[in-house]
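Newbie here. two chains, one complex. Structure please?
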Amino acid sequence: MSEAPMIRLVFLDGHYAAAESTSLEELGLALEPLEGNGLRLSLHKTLDTPLLLLHRSQGASIALSQLQLHLAPGVHATVREHFLPMSVPTGGWQGVTEVVLEERAHCEYLHLQEPIAGTWEHDVSVLQAAHSTWKAQTFLTGAGSHRVDFHMEQNGIHAEATLLGSFLGQGTQSVHISSTAVHAVPETRSRQLVKGVASDHARCSFRGMVHVLPHAKNAFGKMHNHNLLLDPTAEVQTMPCFQIDHDQVVCNHGATVGQLRADELFYLQARGIPRAKSELLLSRAFIEETTADIIQNPEMGPAITAYIDQFFAGRATMTKEATP
Amino acid sequence: MLSIKNLHATINGEEVLHGINLEVKEGEIHAIMGPNGSGKSTLSKIIAGHPAYEVTKGEILYDINMNAVNLTSLRADERAREGIFLAFQYPIEVPGVSNFEFLRTAFNAVATHQGAEELDSFDFQRLIETKLKDLQMDVKFLSRHVNVDFSGGEKKRNEILQMAVLQPRLALLDETDSGLDVDSLQQVAQALNKLKTPENAYVLVTHYHRILEHVVPDHIHILANGRIVHSGDHTLALEIEKNGYEPFLRGIQE
């Protein structure tokens, strides 16, 4: 089953490449300039096809990207922001993606980062009005130095935000993720689940925050980060935090860093499954919860599955440059 | 098939088996009984190759292609591929791994080692559905994650399903009857009897004689303080039920 065609917006080193992108004019859309290098895309009606924001590098000394997506009331959109493998020279790559969801707008956002050499920093933020929903999923494969910040701000009643994240760090990569959910008004919900795997000498960290402001009665905030260390030389730090300024809320968090369980390994091996295969099955199972949807995506699924398998087999290189 | 000679083993530096001797022939059923903490489950795990235990003395000889191989030279997965199966006393949950994937991976690992062909998902599905039917188990078992949210009885039946799929030569059944109600016990016992052949052998660890009424052993051994202190035929179970272990422990040194 093939995926429906997508509306492609291609960015080379942060700059919009109209010639390589879908014609927005034919779709009745337009990119408006923002201050600096920024662009805004406003959606006034639900898109029939997913929107793909595809980032590549042509070797500029520095890459800066600033994009705002604005969904009008009631509009639904599926957005994939995809960073292809790239080598970023000395200046690094920095970007900001801001999503504004008006009342009852709904956005499903897939954030996919393939291996990047160099420094890569990305801020993703969403501002939510009442009854809007934000469902974000991120799959990060590490960079020379890598930071991504997710910021979800719920400014309208019954706004809901979900972030499912997976990161795989290997070699001498560093992966640093922060995720913040701000409950500014009553009756809002957020859920953050991030799973990380670190091998070799990777250095990874997760910093999570649920911030409930004084007027946010009945806010529900859940945050979990679980990490798997495949080698004794790998390192993960996890820092879940709450700042709760109202008495009547439900918030919970959990964080773990550990290795594959010896009893699980023995159980599989006691059935004849070799140790390496047992480790692969258990490691894949570990991140299944946060990657199941991505893997089922008919276009990206096979490449992601292959990458995951190769990562756990200690040979994580992309088998092909994934081009949608 | 299995010959254990003067087996001594430790865990965390403490000796837990103090010279076990046991001979198991093809086609036989041996039951291991004994007080709590006597080393019954420990013996099963050591034969299966649990890494927490260290064999410090003695041998565990197992017949592989007419050669007596000391199992201490084989890892747990190698022993399993040579036909040794441990039905766990407390089967663990493995979240994220479906029963189907787990069983198929295990089957193919054993099959290819024994010279048979791997089965793809389609062919394995057909094989497993036959086994499920024989064991009166629902096909929905396959899509569930291994032992996750299984009842106690379901976990034990899942162990038997694995045994039916892998068809081991030597099955170590560690308190397979514990936690089972009367009906579940009968189902498990029926399944074990169905899987029993003249070519395979069972070593059945249990506290109670009730399963031994259904899966009748050729030999019963009483294990106490890490040693076999008495052996007998199937009638020994009733004797234990009537008089306890105390008559067999008199004069046994710690």
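Moderator note: The radius of gyration of chain A is 20 Å. Helices of chain A lie at 262-269, 275-286, 288-296, 301-312. Thread marked as resolved.
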